[in-house]
Amino acid sequence: MLKDLLEKQRDAVVDRWKQLLVGTYPPETQRFLKTQKNPFANPLGNSIDEGLEGLYDNLLKDGDIEKFSEFLDRVVRIRAVQGYAPSTAVGFVFLLKEAVQEILGQAIRENRLYEELLTFEQKIDSLALLSFNIYMQCRETIFEIRTHEIRNRTSRLVERACQKYGMPQEWADTEETKA
Amino acid sequence: MELHNLSKPQDLMNIDLNKTPETPWMDTPVNFRDGTYIYPAAGKNLKRLGLPNPREWSPTDEDWKLPDNWKEIIMKGLKERLDKYRSFRLFMDICVRCGACMDKCHFFIGSGDPKNMPVLRAELLRSVYRNDFTTLGKMLGRFAGARELTVDVLKEWFYYFFQCTECRRCSVFCPYGIDTAEVTMIGRELLNLVGLNINWVMEPVANCYRFGNHLGIPPHGVKDMWEFMVDDIENITGINVNLPINKKGAEILFVTPSGDYFADPGTYTCMGYLMLFHEIGLDYTWSTYASEGGNFGLFTSHEMIKRLNAKIYAEAKRLGVKWILGGECGHMWRVIHQYMETMNGPADFLEAPVSPITGTKFENAKQSKMVHIMEFTADLIKHGKLKLDPSRNRKVRATYHDSCNPARAAGLLEEPRYVIQNVCEDFFEMPENTIREQTFCCGGGAGLGNDENLEMRMRGAFPRANALRHVQDKHDVNRLLCMCAIDRATLTALTHYWAPDVSVGGIHELVANALVMDGEQERTEDLRGEPLNEEEEE
Questions:
Q1: Alpha-carbon distance B249 to B252, whole Å?
Q2: Measured between CB atoms, which of B10, B33, B466 is closest to A40?
Q3: Which residues form the RsbT co-antagonist protein RsbRD N-terminal domain (chain A) (predicted)?
Q4: CA–CA min distance B20, chain A (Å)
Q5: Burial environment of residue A171 by CB neighbours within 10 A (0 to 12, 13 to 18, 19 or more)
Q6: Cβ–Cβ of A81/B459 closer than 8 Å?
Q7: What does the alpha-carbon distance between residue B184 and residue B175 come to, in Å, rounded to a whole number?
Q8: Which pLDDT tens digit goes with each residue over B84-118?
Q9: Which of A170, B189, B392, B456 is the most buried (most CB within 10 A)?
Q10: Among residues B178, B197, B216, which one ends one of the domains?
Q11: Burial environment of residue B536 by CB neighbours within 10 A (0 to 12, 13 to 18, 19 or more)
Q12: pLDDT per residue over B223-241, tens digit each?
């Protein structure tokens, strides 16, 4: 069964998946991401490790959407602000297909596990859709913060001015707009 | 498009595990992408300050409208600074590229961009220094790590020197003590010589120069904001607190960043000061002239620091105070603690600060005559001069972010923790390698905390946020405390993106919540106007 293979080769497949994802960073950075193991000194490497391991384990045991979202968030939230094209930011999910092919391709062919592979790959596709949701939510948050910052910079000043000098005519409620 | 023409995901994502960059770092030009660079200074602000080359331009333009002799200006400026600052020349010469600083910058950790490694950031300038000022560089060129100054190099400087928050975390790890922040400071000075500066720095500087504060609020406007706070305090406590403004002959002049007058959550900290000073009966005064502690001159040039900071001693002299007390501020404290006396002193018209309440002599401030409020309040608590009820902060589960400048540059590490632990029952430290001297920057200091640069800020904020999320998960932390006005603004964005259920606030907000005031009404709300107890909330 494909599941047995995926369980048996868990470390090899996840490692390859991580390698492929780390490969989207510049070479000097790849070295750092792989070698620094302290989670607070290397939060990016740590997020990748925990995120991908969590996703893989949940794929094997059919975890719930919340769990998948939580682990996807670990990776997507940072990639959403690293200047990548949206496809590159979320496309790491598809790299799992590549990793499975590389590590288990021969065994899959020998044991004719194509049908199971198709089912597994469908799950990966769903993960990609889920990661796109998270990516968009991250980007929307960025724009929300921008407007919030601009507003908050002088909010007290405006509040006080309205209190003291009255609200500008255009802002005030009229008879028609009053709730 | 036919299906076979569409690349596989890994090809689309441009993955190459054994790649070397297509061009060496010296020849890889900068790509100015929205969200990762800062808008340039408006010409009007440079004119107001008498700075060179005022004009309208954009980093995305091909032509940056530099003066014809820009190269000559930069080289002359570089030579002057090499002669003037021995530290700078040393930093240019002694780096052995050991790599100890390599992975210590929050921007490198969060972005993965190698040019954000402190060693490489400094190398951007060092390569030009080698080319024109060292024999080896002149003879061997590239081979000795030298390169010629071109417009592309200048663009790279602009991009990366405004991607350093001057937090100095890298310098903690450098075996030679190279302070990359000082390299950035000189880099920015040089850029300023040809009119390459950012508006988020130059507008506050121009406003400060003309009005005394960053937003350019005239005296009556500032007074109005303070009165607004006095009203709010009365609603919460029933006490009409004392508000002395420009009071001649007061014992103490109080100066704090103006960010805390206008924007939440800084305003609550400012209300905290008013309540504390009222309660202990301090003979002090606010000033509408020295209405700003922050000094964006620090992010511009040494001359500008001096120019903007002069008002503090001048106002102390005009009002005839004995000494000066500073509010919760980060970079202001670096200026006060390390530059003020040399630049604007001697302040021989002032006295060595003594707390009128406890009699403590602040020996450490004998020279500058200015005390940080955290030292002042910690001393009050130590001597039992404040009646505190920490249970009023029981909703707060706090952690503390050491702001780079007071912590790393000025060693204010214990005082804030001592104060927090006396006013708040639940306090949890973030991991050891992310606090105190090793604290991670908020990602928005040194003029980078603007909205157009938000994506870059979020990269830089990631290491701090990661440590914060750790204590959020482990201890249910819901408040990130700090004693810096820039932090109060930038950390708010950080938590919004990275740790949405954590709020940000200053320490004196909690002090004032806990402070039992003489004659106060029963408190049902905290300074934010929120119920003190969970039950009342329901």
A1: 9
A2: B466
A3: 11-146
A4: 7
A5: exposed
A6: yes
A7: 19
A8: 999 999 999 999 999 999 999 999 999 999 999 99
A9: B456
A10: B197
A11: exposed
A12: 999 999 999 999 999 999 9
Residue of B456, B458, B488 to mutate, testing the A interface (most A Cβ within 10 Å of its Cβ): B458
Q: Which of residues 150-179 of A touch B (CB under 8 A)?
A: 150, 152-157, 160, 163-164
Same-domain check for residues B337 and B302: yes
CA distance A95 to B14: 12
B225 lies in the same domain as B254? yes
Count Cβ–Cβ pairs < 8 Å, chain A vs chain B.
144
In a domain, B3, yes or no: no
CB contacts of A81 in chain B (<8 Å) are: 455, 458-459, 497
In a domain, B180, yes or no: yes
Give the 3-state secondary structure of B335-378. Answer: HHHHHHHHHHCCCCCCCCCECCCCCCECHHHCCCCEEEHHHHHH
Q: Are residues B214 and B147 in the same domain?
A: no
- Choose, out of B466, B474, B496, B498, the residue to mutate when testing the contact with A (most A CBs < 10 Å): B466
Which residues make beta-bridge pairs with B323?
Answer: B252
Same domain, B282 and B170: no
Tell me the domain boundaries of chain A: 2-165
ipTM of the complex: 0.92
**Chain A contact set for B267 (CB, 8 A):** 156
What does each of the 179 residues of chain A score in pLDDT, given as a tens digit? 899 999 999 999 999 999 999 999 998 899 999 999 999 999 999 999 999 999 999 999 988 999 999 999 999 999 999 999 999 999 999 999 999 999 999 999 999 999 999 999 999 999 999 999 999 999 999 999 999 988 887 777 777 778 778 777 667 677 776 65
Q: Is residue B525 part of a domain?
A: yes
Same domain, B296 and B320: yes
Residues of B with Cβ-Cβ distance to A44 under 8 angstroms: 109-110, 112, 462
CB contact under 8 A, A146 and B262: no
**Same-domain status, B42 and B161:** yes
What's the rounded Cα separation, in Å, for the pair B521 and A127?
Answer: 56
pLDDT over 70, % of chain B: 97
B495 and B455 assigned to the same domain: yes
Per the structure, the count of domains in chain B is: 2
Q: Both B189 and B220 in a single domain?
A: no
φ/ψ of residue A177, rounded to 5: -90, -10
Structural domain that includes position B177? 21-197
Residue B511: CB atoms within 10 A of its CB come to 26
